[in-house]
Write a structure and sequence with these properties.
The protein is of the alpha/beta class. It contains six helices and six strands, in the order E-E-H-E-H-E-H-E-H-H-E-H. It has a four-stranded parallel beta sheet, with helices on one face. Strands 2-3 form a two-stranded antiparallel ribbon. Helix 2 runs parallel beside helix 3 and helix 3 packs across helix 5. It is globular.
């Protein structure tokens, strides 16, 4: 079987959005990470760590990778281009299965709309959204030599077929509010 990994390119402390956040694993772990001096946990504000993206690009053997055990990638304070850089790396590593879990399904949907509109405006066609994500990864500091040149070929499915998107909710009322 494939090896499982967890990566946290965004660190900090999410803003609680529902009652379920009171029992959040990450919320309980951040103070511990601070005591241990782990990089990126010095503040509650989101911080971006492109070295994590480069690490994923170096893994050649297939793995299942969970993105964001310590922070919601679609938290409102996470800039669109940070998310784009993460999706650029996901698209560049089709040998892996990437799992993204969020409590913010509406923000996830908005982000996919943003990347479609921005790629269409910047490049003139939606098939270049992967090129946009690749460029975001490079501008975040990921060595461009690690990112395949041909990953943004037209016609590739979006989101990439190796990406599993999931949303969590604790009850029907919360689902309605977050959707």
């Amino acid at each position: 079987g494939s090896k499982g990994e967890t990566v946290n390119p965004v660190r900090g402390l999410c803003t609680p959005i529902s009652a379920g956040c009171a029992r959040c694993y990450a919320r309980a772990q951040v103070p511990r990470m601070r005591r241990l001096g782990a990089p990126g946990y010095e503040t509650d504000e989101p911080t971006f760590h492109p070295k994590v993206l480069a690490q994923v690009l170096r893994w050649k053997k297939p793995r299942t990778i969970f993105w964001g055990s310590m922070f919601d990638l679609f938290e409102e304070r996470v800039p669109d281009d940070w998310i784009a850089a993460c999706f650029g790396v996901m698209a560049a590593t089709p040998q892996h299965v990437h799992v993204v879990l969020t409590k913010r399904a509406a923000r996830m949907r908005e982000w996919f709309g943003w990347v479609d509109a921005y790629a269409s405006e910047r490049f003139g066609l939606r098939s270049e959204r992967l090129g946009l994500c690749r460029a975001a990864a490079a501008s975040a500091g990921v060595d461009e030599k690690l990112i395949p040149d041909d990953m943004h070929a037209g016609g590739m499915d979006w989101p990439p077929p190796n990406v599993v998107l999931m949303a969590t909710v604790e009850n029907w009322q919360t689902r309605s509010r977050l959707d």
